[in-house]
Amino acid sequence: MTATPATLSSAPAAFITLEGGEGSGKSTQAKLLAAALAERGVRAVLTREPGGSPEAEAIRSLLVEGAVDRWDPMSEALLLFAARRDHLRRTIRPALDAGTWVICDRFGDSTLAYQGYAHGLGAEVIDNLAAIAIGGFRPDLTLILDLPVEIGLERARSREAGREDRFERMGAAFHQRLRDGFLDIARKEPARCKVIDAARPIEAIHADILAHVLAHRPETAVRA
After folding, report:
1. Which pLDDT value is given to residue 222?
2. What are the contacts of 198-202 at 24+ separation with CB within 8 A?
């Protein structure tokens, strides 16, 4: 019998985030996931943080460009939550309310990992800011792309030259704390967060991501 996509009219839209350190391949995997969902009849929008709305994109340039010491950790966190609040209001919530899935390259776990763990602000500070700025809104499913720091930084530096490299220049010790932070987040929330070995070929990573998404929302699977 010919396989046809599952009926999704009664299925709630999902908010899926991809997380990980520099060079982990989140953007590539987000696009592959969106394409795979489209083949199954699932409408999804791709977005990113910092950014995702015109106002949030304006804040993005303040964060990802310039000198490493341009901002202190608290200033970074406040800017990120200002951008996230606008992103949530203008892009994420409207899409979900319309029944469209949202696939986001970074969200709140990045702030917890970068500013909370790697910069040392701590989880309590980030959680309090999240409660104030976005009411503690969280993803349905988070895929954390994990790979050794040296591999990630090498990949990031081999990309087309650009100005958005402020965090990449923060040093190996910072990025090791970042990686450890993401893994600790996953350890504490195993139901929501799934760790993916991102040191493998792109196709293998995509297969794992899609498997986790289909397990989380089995109604998206192709039925015979």
Report:
1. 53
2. 198/20, 198/24, 198/25, 198/145, 198/146, 198/147, 198/152, 199/147, 199/148, 199/151, 202/25, 202/28, 202/29, 202/32
